[in-house]
Amino acid sequence: xxxxxxxxxxxxxxxxxxxxxxxxxxxxxxxxxxxxxxxxxxxxxxxxxxxxxxxxxxxxxxxxxxxxxxxxxxxxxxxxxxxxxxxxxxxxxxxxxxxxxxxxxxxxxxxxxxxxxxxxxxxxxxxxxxxxxxxxxxxxxxxxxxxxxxxxxxxxxxxxxxxxxxxxxxxxxxxxxxxxxxxxxxxxxxxxxxxxxxxxxxxxxxxxxxxxxxxxxxxxxxxxxxxxxxxxxxxxxxxx
Length: 240
Description:
seven-stranded mixed beta sheet; two-stranded antiparallel ribbon; globular; alpha/beta; single chain; Rossmann fold
């Protein structure tokens, strides 16, 4: 019964409504909002994400979750970590796919399902997660290798890693002109390919899904902030 009810959360309108109602309850009634800073994340990380805390309609995480949900070795009780979910949207989406043991980790939290903490120094023991998802969060890290090492540390051997990253051709100067502020520091190397993502991990057993931003759509000065920038996505199984 729980599984059948949860499947309703695959419907965008229902999932968005549930997310917004829960946000209103925890944010406005319970006043649960908490934030912390991270020296290893870019300065604008919290500000940038608080601006879109109420947005539940983005479907890009489905590109990571869909291939993960097809892996037959994963069960409803499999332990899943979502890094940087911002709000409960990704967690509710995973509930809709039948995964009920989901924990978020973020510098921002209002939810009992999102633990506050730094992704570079995760407050979890070694070898406890069956799946670790880092969707469109890696770009906020000044030290992506340290983040990848932490993802590996908290994962079991044989765990599934899912990473999504927005493809971007913007230079440091162009991003400032377009956004009014810079989302990354000058000189930061953008990880723009699946190979870039996979090189952060020492032992990869199997690649399950690979999407290398074939159309190379990027925010740009001519068109401004576009609605559908390309994504670089890798889902793979690691050894330890």
